[in-house]
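INTERNAL AUDIT FORM
Audit reference: QA-55
Scope: verify that the stored structure record matches its stored sequence.
Auditor: D.O.
Record contents follow.
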Amino acid sequence: MNNVICCKCVRCGREYPAAPDITTCECGGILDVVYDYEYIKTKLSRSALADDPDPTMWRYRALLPIEEDTVPQGLRVGGSPLYKADSLARELGVKALYIKDDGINPTSSLKDRASAMAVTKAVEAGYHTIACSSTGNAASSLAGNAAKAGLSTYIFVPDRAPKGKIAQLMMFGANLTAVRGSYEETFELSKKAIDKYGWYNRNAAINPYLSEGKKTVAHEIIEQLGFRAPDYVAASVGDGCTIAGVYKGLYDMYMVGLTDRIPRLISVQAAGCCPINTAVVTGEPWQPQEENTYADSIAVGVPRNADKAIKAIRDSGGICVNVTDDEIREAQRYLAKNAGVFGEPAGVTATAGLLKLSREGKLDPDAAIVSIVTGNGLKDIESAIKNCGAPVSCGNDLAEFESKFGLA
């Protein structure tokens, strides 16, 4: 790969050749892909993007770790809308607010970006089977993208995973195991099976290429804003892979001269499970926490990508905010009613953080902010129904209907 220099450990700094199936450093640290940005500048420009008809994440392949002759695998991922939400901006008291709705991806989550990269690298490396552990979204996105690429999948999820995600997995033909235990226990079982059977490893903190797929959401944000960086980008945080990827994408666009600065990150975690934010705020090493939140996609008490995430938040001069489950429920209703975007609980957590920061008077009134919605609300329909309540029940009678709504 002419655009890639090496993979480098974020803990000890050791460098490795960027093999398609590389995992972690010998010291146990996670790896980061290091790019030759001077070379990439000869391949990528505003005019090159303007002339590129490809609307998917692969329009940024000059910034992605794949061979030049590799054919991208998986579903049609990326090109999600960025909505300008003027009424929400007024409510928050900021200059501009944009909602990046990544729930419109093929399996309805941002994780499709990582899974499309995973199956592409698996095929590049000659694998026929790919596996992962997940709280739900990574699993369903892997199953769908792998089905399109003709790969077999073995997937491990906690047995608390929402039925919508389980249904996707089963329909995509995954070999699915619902683990009686926490996400940490689920991860450990997947690791044992992957090590024993030699499957391609899609686990985000083990595989350095996953956050490289996720970072394309930030590439799109910068391009969709006319290459003008916002002041802040807000993201919900679980294992840390997404926010690390967002920062890497913003950093990429800055390093190749497609924007003039890197926005500050707003890291939003559930108050019942916030090991990454706690580490950033206290300055202490992160510590495991209980998974006490109904937002299953970010209920990660032992984050596997904490090192990259913490560094990303600090390097951007970022802000950390923790929100309660009730604040997440409020944001889910608020975003749907006022912006027409239906996100799952973890998907709207970033917006919940913005609402909380606004109430506390901590948002700059001159700021332009992007809030990323990472998953569609249909992923967890039971939580949504509990949140919004039951519909009005009425017989086939106009008078009854009018009385129900106070129209008579």
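Auditor finding: record pair retrieved intact. The chain has a mean pLDDT of 95.
Action required: none
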